[in-house]
Design goal:
Elements (H helix, E strand, L loop, with lengths): L1 H23 L4 H8 L3 H9 L6 H11 L4 H4 L3 H18 L4 H13 L7
Helix pairs in contact: 1-3, 2-3
């Protein structure tokens, strides 16, 4: 049963990303449905997580929305990473003198073996 809950959660997350991507390109559910050759209710069910998208539907939707299919599958952590990159960029714009020591620190981190590879 827990597997079903996890699957439903993944479907809901994909649906949320689908909806956000659709709204970013200013398409209605009907517009996306027409482009994909499905009913509007199907798009609504995908977005609500009530129905899982097939790999083919996900790939076609991503193409219509102008995003890579992985964007619909990525975890929420991406937004946290994006915020971290934005903060780092802003900091470096305000303090360009920090760039050399930051690059040196990143090089040291990249030279270390990954904890996962041990």
């Amino acid at each position: 049963m827990t597997g079903r809950t996890g699957e439903a959660s993944i479907d809901a997350q994909v649906g949320e990303r689908l909806r956000a991507a659709r709204l970013r390109v200013v398409l209605t559910q009907g517009d996306l449905a027409q482009a994909l050759g499905v009913d509007r209710s199907t798009v609504a069910k995908w977005e609500s997580g009530e129905r899982a998208m097939t790999a083919v539907a996900l790939t076609r939707a991503a193409d219509v929305l102008g995003i890579p299919p992985a964007a619909l599958l990525e975890e929420q952590r991406r937004s946290a990473q994006h915020q971290a990159v934005q903060l780092l960029t802003q900091t470096l714009e305000q303090h360009p003198d920090l760039l050399p020591p930051m690059l040196a620190a990143l090089e040291r981190l990249l030279d270390q073996p990954s904890p996962r590879s041990s």
